[in-house]
Amino acid sequence: MAPPGWRPGRILLGIWATAVLAAAIFPLDGGPVPASGQIHSAVSALAFPAITAASPTLTHTFTGTPRWPAAGRVSRWIARLVLVSFLLAITTQHLGWFGVTQRIFLAAVLAWLITATNQLRQPR
Length: 124
Fold this sequence. Notes:
The protein is mostly helical. It has four helices and no strands.
């Protein structure tokens, strides 16, 4: 039986992956599709909170599973960094340095994904 947070965490991760793919397909600057920027913004507004919620949800699942204790300990700290950087990004959304805080958030997300993946790949 899967741990309690496994299913919601995977759903949130799937939402994030789908939304990021859509954001990559529809550029912010418009491109050939007139509403491309609006689509990009809408799916980004879905992707950011989804991965921010997925990281602590799955981290809690890792922590509660005897098979993955190392993944839980390491990813717990990085999941906190994801949350803090997300809050920083949304509070600076209308300021001139939103691009920088957004990149910090994306770096934290990438660090969490790499850490969780590396821990889960190790044989138990």
